[in-house]
Amino acid sequence: MKYLHLIRAALMRRKTRTVLTILSVLAAFLLFGLLDGVRVAFNSGGTLAGVDRLVVASRFSIIQSLPESLVNRVAAVPGVKLTTWANWFGGYYREQKNQMIIFAIGPDYFQAYPDYGVTPAMADALATTRTGVLAGKAVADRFGWKTGDKLPIMGSIFPNKSTGETTWTFDIVGVFQAPQAANRALEQQILLNWKYFDEANAYGGGQVGWIVAKVADPKHSAEIAQAIDALSANSDHETKTQTEQEFNLSFARQIGDIGLIVTAIIGAVFFTLMLLTGNTMAQAVRERIPELATLKTIGFTDAQVLALVFGESVLLILIGGLLGLALATLLMPIVTEASGGMIQLPPIGSRSWGMGIALMIAVGAIVGILPAWRAMRLRVVDALAGR
Amino acid sequence: MPRFIRLLRGLLMLLAIAGSIALWIVLPAPALLGLAILLAAWMGLTRSGRQAAAITRVGIATLPQRLGASSVIVIGIAGVVGVLVALLALAGGLQQTLRGTGNDDTAIVVRGGASAELDSGLSRESATLIAQAPGIARDAGGQPLVSAEVVVVTNVPKKSSGTDANVEIRGVGLQSWAVRPNVRIVDGRRFEPGLRELLVGQGARQQFAGLEPGSTINLNAQQWQIVGVFASGDAHESELIGDAETVATTYRRNGFQSVTVRLDSRGAFDTFKAALASDPRLKVDARTTRDYYTAQSAALSKVIRIVGIVIATIMAIGAVFGALNTMYAAVNARAREVATLRAIGFGAAPVLVSVVLEAMLLALLGGALGASVAWLLFHDYAVSTLGANFSQVVFRFDVSPALLGTGVRWALAIGLIGGLLPAVRAAQLPVTAALRES
Q: Residues A88, A193: one domain?
């Protein structure tokens, strides 16, 4: 630590160069922060993912539903604490570009998903109003809906039995607000009674899209999932049971190998960065050869000179990198906010920070090692003579 | 007071840079060429131009001595351009594939309000009514060229990740070969109507596991055999196709998702659409397949483009700082040389131009390198993503010449910014002080 002022002096020697280098390191780590956030978001299966929830869906495909009768049999599997179910409904409001995320949900849904922040009063209102829906705050604010409004929806799949058309009218009985910022995406959803959906859709009743089973002990999830799948083995509605996290992850994977793309981009960024800062450090040491020789003359050991140059390189990257990550941390919520929750960039977690700092030290070490070695091997006489 | 003037000068500089970048981006290619010719003419014909050319030559000749520093500009810009071109090629490839799927000779009919076939549902009666509408081409036997289709999705593991992906199964009508003449068998044979047989698209066969001809796959607990491979050069290559009635039976469906018809002439679409709209028994949307498929790629390719440009912009900012660093160092190293030139009568403008030109030349090298690497690595590389029918669409990166041009344009813009400030410093070097400096 007592040499810190020496390192500082070295960095301040050519201010323009130091500032420019720090700014490029900043840009690199800003990008790292943003992209790693995206990668983590895609690989974690979403922030909502409860570890104690299993999703039971058709093994054959996403478009096939399950018989309602299966729900009770799943509930009877030992270790299952609670079951509920849902169906994709979907549709648009007024114009086709306003596509809505609409689910028809079974009873007890909010006991399995406390994340929505639906109050018992709201849940009651939904249960007692046949045509009722609960709307998330984000989507309600976007279109100016409030409790008591009629909500006309052009359904995407299911025609209404009474009219044969896909126009539906619901009553908004509540607007819910997710208590945690990480769950804001839920506020884009609209939830309606599965019972009403089941009675009123023309495609026939008694079908559920997927079943959610809350387990008592997540450690036994794998055995419970097997037991659930065994219920329907060899039937025409075989199931595939996954933890919610796996279920979400398999969706994310379908969009593409985001992890690979992100890693490739970050790789390109850091390759460039290393070359750039490596060149800066080489330049800095080349210019300072007489000074380093002087240090050695007045009694600095080889190891100390090595450590000085090495420390300078690591410090340079750390300053830029920490600023970059901090900027990314600041930007993430702004982007999320500005897009009205449409783009959900998760806050940069401790893992991203840890990895970022490890990368900073690694990059600093790699670009510092050669110049530091060169500084250490200086022969005082030659260096002072300018040879 | 001098501080105020410095501030003003800095501000003007910033405005000039912003202006030139804006100009650079909006200028069409011929105008850029004109600019280059103008520059060449200036360098060849005027006195200060010839001076600039001379200094630039010296600068370029001494580049090998500054190899390490100069390569920072080249590699830095290559990185930016490589990432930009690759991401834009991804967006372009997706758009190209979906746009190429449609044409103006065929029209697709889905239920009113449905955004994709998977959302849609048409009864048998509707399908029959649609087939009787005017404007549909007919075969030699007088049968309308119509294919009423069932679209379902099944889980098939992706080869790259081993995880389940949604693959589209399209049950097609007997006339579908005439409706889509571009579909041809490249391996095996056509499926037999009434049998549980499927044809696999080339793209799907490549991306998903277990879709080789001769193998069987499980659709809704029934075994289906893959009897051949087809190529169509469009998004249908991501699908499996079979007989509509048999697919519908397997999935216990009574009805269709869409009806695709071949129009009897270019202008027939309006007649066809009007006839469907005026029939009170039908609640359907008709679009040419070009419209339908172009709309499907719009949202996703736009997102990829925006993401690509944002990432490339942040990288470009980093690269600009790198270029500034290098060019400042170059100017410092050549301070005496520049001062000497000034002392023997060279003007400030030629010095400025020569530094900018040197930076732009390095940038051009970097841009060309980045664009070539992107082309070598990614051109025609097949990937797949989730499309409108909630199923996988296989497409290829499309590194087009236009994209390579965009990449080079970005490279030159970075070089321009990176060179301008150091150039100003070089032009303003106090001659006496620089000559005295050791």
A: yes
Task: Give the closest residue to A141 by CA, choosing from A342, A343, A288, A310.
Answer: A342
Residues of B in contact with A26 (CB under 8 A): 318
CB pair distance less than 8 Å for A64 and B114? no
Please tell me the distance from the alpha carbon of residue B234 to that of residue B226, in angstroms, as a whole number: 20
Mean pLDDT, consecutive 10-residue stretches, chain B (438 aa), reads 78 81 78 88 88 88 84 90 93 90 92 84 93 93 94 90 89 94 94 95 93 92 93 92 94 91 91 93 92 86 87 89 88 87 89 91 94 93 86 91 91 90 88 77
Nearest to B221 among A17, A24, A238 (CB): A238
Same domain, A33 and A123: no
| Cα nearest neighbour of B155 on chain A | A61
Q: Are residues A26 and A122 in the same domain?
A: no
Which pLDDT tens digit goes with each residue over A69-128? 999 999 999 999 999 999 998 888 988 878 899 999 998 899 999 889 899 999 999 999
For CA atoms B139, B145, B147, B148, give the dihedral sign: negative
Nearest to B420 by CA among B358, B362, B368, B370: B358
Q: Which residues of A touch B79 (CB under 8 A)?
A: 268-269, 271-272
Inside any domain, residue A52: no
Q: Can you tell me the distance from the alpha carbon of A311 to that of A309, in angstroms, rounded to the nearest whole number?
A: 5
Q: How many pairs of residues across A and B have Cβ atoms under 8 Å apart?
A: 138
Higher pLDDT, A42 or A265: A265
Domain that residue A205 falls in: 60-237
Give domain status of residue A51, yes or no.
no
Q: What ipTM is given for this predicted complex?
A: 0.81
Is A98 at the interface with chain B, CB within 8 A? no
CB contact under 8 A, A60 and B219: yes
Q: Do A272 and B76 touch (CB under 8 A)?
A: yes
| Residue at A302 is within a domain | yes
3-state DSSP assignment of residue B438: coil
User: Tokens 């440009």 sit at which residue?
Assistant: B309
Residues A183, A44, A63: CA angle, nearest 5 degrees: 80
Residue B318 to residue A269, Cβ atoms within 8 A: yes
Q: Apex CA A42: angle with CA B319 and CA B101, to 5°?
A: 85
Report the residue from B155, B325, B326 with minimal CB separation from A61: B155
Other CB atoms within 10 Å distance of the CB of residue B34:
12
Name the percent of chain A in helix, strand, coil, to the closest 5.
55, 15, 25
Q: Could you tell me if A65 and A39 lie in one domain?
A: no
CA distance B120 to chain A (A): 6
Q: Which of B364, B76, B408, B428 is nearest to A20 (CA)?
A: B76
With an 8 Å Cβ cutoff, is A319 touching chain B?
no
Nearest-CB residue to B220 (from A17, A64, A273): A64
